[in-house]
Write a structure and sequence with these properties.
Elements lengths: L15 E4 L9 H16 L3 E4 L13 H12 L22 H13 L3 E4 L3 H6 L4 E2 L2 E2 L21 E4 L6 E6 L3 E6 H4 L3 E4 L7 H11 L4 E5 L5 H12 L5 E5 L19 H6 L4 H10 L4
Length: 291
């Protein structure tokens, strides 16, 4: 997929890491542990560290959250070389400002014959008795063979799906978990890259951003492990470079469950209001129980 002016990775010298929070609320201890590990991994390598704001899910964006995230990270002692407030050669650093890049990637995937449009709803999948995978219903390909919706022009209210193609098995080495092997046919089936409401899906936006920003080492939570094979599949079709991946354990809350912004899990803002110092907060984060 070479030749597009939009899909050229930034030229880099040396390692590049990143932290990519979503501005959907204050960071909790689990978010912060991942941020610390990503920052330390990058700085240990003498690399460039990027802060990217993943705000493509606009209905869930909380006003003021981006600034609170940056304030909390700096208070904790994290810094970044490139980001929405500092700029840099790989900008813009907010996904909401990178729409042209995702459009170019979608066009390239269409040109490769790997995109079709889908009008299926969750109800349609239930009625079709779609098989269940680890993340919910596996798309059974209903619209893949329907001429009415599998057209190049984007039908109103249709999602763009990536066809996993003739080589659906993806293997990669996780720097912490070791060899990984996923079959996209049983993990997700053909997956969405642009939603029915027109918003970009995480898999496409994250994969394209990591590649074009020149990220060489991705450190993120273990809950995103199953996203990696889908992102790798997209990058291979697009002819873009793959980063190395490391998926770290999640932090457990007081009930032994995964921490969540939605559930109001303990935030750094709360720790700051309790009078903890940055050093004490970092120690608390490092000592937090893991799943």
């Amino acid at each position: 997929m070479q030749g597009s002016p939009y899909l050229e990775p930034v030229a880099r010298a040396g390692p590049v890491g990143r932290y990519a929070p979503s501005p959907t609320g204050d960071l909790h201890l689990g978010n912060l542990r991942t941020a610390l590990l990503a920052h330390e991994d990058c700085r240990r390598r003498g690399g460039t560290f990027i802060l990217r704001i993943e705000d493509i899910d606009t209905p869930r964006t909380v006003p003021g959250s981006e600034q609170r995230i940056m304030d909390d990270l700096r208070w904790l002692g994290l810094d970044w070389d490139e980001g929405p407030d500092t700029g840099g050669p790989a900008g813009p650093y907010r996904q909401s400002e990178r729409t042209a890049l995702y459009e170019a990637a979608l066009a390239a995937l269409e040109a490769a014959g790997r995109i079709y449009y889908c009008t299926c709803s969750r109800r349609d999948l239930r009625e079709a008795s779609a098989p269940q995978g680890p993340e919910g219903p596996v798309y059974p390909g209903i619209c893949r063979t329907s001429d009415a919706v599998s057209q190049r022009a984007h039908p109103a209210g249709a999602a763009a799906r990536f066809s996993v193609g003739p080589e659906p098995v993806v293997e990669f080495h996780d720097r912490l978990l070791g060899p990984q092997r996923f079959d996209l046919r049983t993990l997700s089936g053909d997956f969405v890259v642009r939603r029915r409401d027109g918003l970009w899906a995480y898999q496409l936006a994250c994969a394209v951003d990591d590649a074009l920003m020149g990220v060489t080492h991705v450190v993120r939570g273990a809950d995103l492990l199953s996203s990696t094979p889908r992102q790798i599949a997209l990058l291979r079709v697009l002819g873009l470079p793959l980063p190395e991946y490391m998926h770290v354990p999640l932090v457990a809350d007081a009930d032994g469950q995964r921490m969540s912004k939605r559930d109001g899990s303990l935030s750094l803002r709360t720790l700051r209001e309790r009078g903890l110092s940055p050093r004490d907060a970092r120690n608390l984060i490092r000592e937090a129980p893991l799943l």
